[in-house]
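so im writing up the methods section and need the AzlD domain-containing protein record in one place, dumping it here so i stop losing it
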Amino acid sequence: MRPDVLAAILAMAIVTYACRAGGYAILRAVRAPRFVERMLQHLPGPLFCAYVAPSLAQWGAFGWIAAIAVMAAQYATGNLAAAILAGALAMAGLQMLG
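--- predicted struct ---
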């Protein structure tokens, strides 16, 4: 492994940890206003949409079908690994057909 790549990976890990730990430390020390607490409660949904939307737009109908397979597997099994596997298999199968 190249030293510069290892240094970059370690630096990113440290910065990521510092950001997360810093946020927890600030929210423990300072009481956030009520609107901030409510906003943070609803943040995971929009973040998930922001991650998923570009892929769905890129893959079109295949992406939507694979997303439906993920949701169906998650609903049926309650297992995240099974849902991810269902989506990956659905996308692979659709790409072989198309």
